[in-house]
Amino acid sequence: MNHSTISTFACAFLLLGITTTEALAQNKYMTRTGSAHFVADGIIKDDVQARSNTVTAVLDASNGQVQARIPVNSFVFRKALMQEHFNENYLESHRFPNANFKGSIQGWNDQMLQKSGPQKIRFVGTLEIHGVTRDINEAGLLEVNNGLVHLETEFKVIVAEYGIKVPALVRDKVAKEAEVHVQGNLKASAQ
Amino acid sequence: MKTRPLLILVAAVLLAMATTYAYFRWNQAPESLAQKDPDFQIKANTLLEEFQSNNAKAQPLYLNRILEIEGRCESIENQGDSLFFVYIGSHNGASVLCQLEKGLDPLPPVGQNVRCKGLCTGYDDLTGGASMDRCVLVNFP
Lengths: 191, 141
Fold this sequence. Notes:
heterodimer; A: alpha+beta; eight-stranded antiparallel beta barrel; about 50% strand; B: five-stranded mixed beta barrel; 6 strands
């Protein structure tokens, strides 16, 4: 084998290596700065709503699996006392620091990342809040824009189903169901 | 007999004061951490290493505590004019994500060593990173 043949093979392997690495890197999309917002106003309106901007979400484009994590104590309320009660009494963030979703996009195929415009999807999997894990199947949206994968969903959480106890004193202020909206723009990741 | 109207007046004043205090307390916005003393001062890389090596031990220690971390600004990110994030330190490819409580102009340049104080929101097992909220940069610019 002469010198030029060896060089050709070396270049081919190098190119193959780069292509493979890029392909692997494109398999996962991730964000750590997604957002989650919920409203849980009861009969007496008292602005029971909060927002977190540090939601982590990972999409595995090879199989459509999705994982998301919301740090419970990252929810910021307009009222400090409400935030304190939410963390210490209701969600007990010292015991259950994260809300987690593990699941997948129903009917996933990797062509979904090639389409333009918003696509209706369904997230199927388990949602863990306050240490209680329940199956969920919720509608969502997927849209690819400038290389970013935008994922979004809106659903209701029945507070009692996750073992969250609301004291009788504030039962009229806090809704039995919280309306939750989660979204994120996921970038291709090397991880 | 003259003391009764006086007592009623005192009770009314006390009730008004208590109601006013309760009203303001209930409507008080979450306070800034800028003037608060940190519970722990730690290098960002050490924090990451502790979470990654033994989350069960690190989580109860640091979660919900005010941390002042020091490390290299790995990257910055903003979403519009209101959301600013700084990624500090690096260990096994992960950083501490710090959401600033308000925008900064200028933001720290990538590569600069920074100190950041904020509320620890725990370990992110999906990325191997840690996160902090309501952050302020200390002695910056």
